[in-house]
Prior knowledge:
By secondary structure, the chain is an all-alpha fold. It has seven helices and no strands.
Amino acid sequence: LTGPMASVSKAVEYIYANMAEAISVDQLADMSGFSISSLERYFKKHFGSGPGRFVLQVKISRACELLADPSYSIASVGEKLGYRDPVVFSRAFKREMRMNPTSYRKSLKLIG
């Protein structure tokens, strides 16, 4: 990849490699060489959402995978994704998935 897409790709790779950290749009703009507004524009064009929402979606997707493993507590799943406070993790999860992590985990048992 070259040009702007190389920078977008770099930002996406950073998100996946650093899921255990709090990732800000400022950080992504700095490391990709974009202004915040340019980064927002490229993410919306290619992913349908801004970089902040993209980070949230990546983390919640990973949370769903981790919640399928009952050996992880809900708090530890949140910690693995950069949420130091389990309540903040649960709220973010519920906003995105329309159910809390406990209900999501229970729903997996019904399916399996």
